[in-house]
Design goal:
Order of helices and strands: EEEEEEEEEEHEHEEH
Largest sheet: 12 strands, antiparallel, barrel
Helix content: 10-25%
């Protein structure tokens, strides 16, 4: 049953107007979330700069600085894995406040929603995520307004020694800054893709060890809200790949 939510306002963090006729409004999402979020950088969680996400139960995973420390809880819907629904809690238990949620509305589109500081404590921000086929533009792509500018990012599958250095396998993902012009005029240093786009995060995955884990590191940061959105987006990508490759 859908929960009707009428005590807060939803705004789009991609710079779009708050109401769009083509997009369902807030009452069509299932979970109401708390009016105040936990505003902290996920990248600060570990002194090493590598954040671990480890699955402990069929529908539960934990985020922490290592495989054994549980800082944040993640719940996901198990019975429809190709339309993932994720809840990120700002603590280790189900009773911890919900920090963000990811809701796949079709096989190609999802929403990430969170209470956000930039819009005020009674407003919730929402970002649209597109899952794309093929090409270099990225598989899971989202756009946000950052410092007054629209910025687009996309997670791509990747395989490299740099990813293996995160402590799992060579297989994983890279988050690429897709904003037009950044591959030519950007002054940012750091790794680039073969098409000269800036790599801003890396994730390594491991399917066949227990517990099943993912290691994530940010090479740049565009704010705490961006870090949360990029985290739940790569978790959805990881779940999609796991269900395609293995059972359970």
């Amino acid at each position: 049953m859908l929960s009707l939510v009428s005590d807060y306002v939803n705004v789009w963090l991609d710079g779009s107007p708050g109401s769009k006729p083509s997009r369902p409004d807030q009452t069509e999402l299932e979970w109401p979330i708390t009016a105040s979020g936990a505003h902290r950088n996920i990248s600060d969680l570990a002194d090493t700069g590598v954040v671990m996400v480890c699955k402990s139960l069929p529908s539960t995973a934990f985020v922490g600085p290592d495989q054994h420390t549980r800082k944040y809880r993640i719940k996901h819907r198990k019975h429809r894995p190709l339309l993932p629904r994720l809840l990120l809690h700002s603590g280790p238990s189900d009773s911890s406040p919900i920090w963000a949620k990811y809701e796949a509305v079709t096989y190609r589109k999802a929403w990430v929603e969170m209470p956000c500081r930039s819009t005020g404590s009674t407003l919730h921000g929402r970002v649209e995520v597109y899952r794309k086929r093929g090409g270099k533009e990225g598989k899971y792509v989202f756009t946000m307004m950052i410092r007054g500018q629209k910025e687009t990012f996309g997670w791509r599958r990747s395989r490299s020694a740099t990813i293996k250095d995160l402590g799992l396998s060579r297989n994983g993902y890279k988050l690429v800054r897709l904003t037009k012009g950044t591959h030519v005029s950007s002054s940012h240093t750091g790794p680039r893709t073969s098409d000269r786009m800036q790599v801003v995060a890396l994730a390594a995955r491991s399917h066949h060890v227990f517990p099943r884990c993912m290691a994530l590191t940010y090479l740049a940061s565009f704010g705490d809200e961006w870090e949360v959105i990029s985290l739940v987006t790569i978790l959805a990508f990881w779940l999609w790949d796991r269900k395609r490759m293995v059972k359970g």
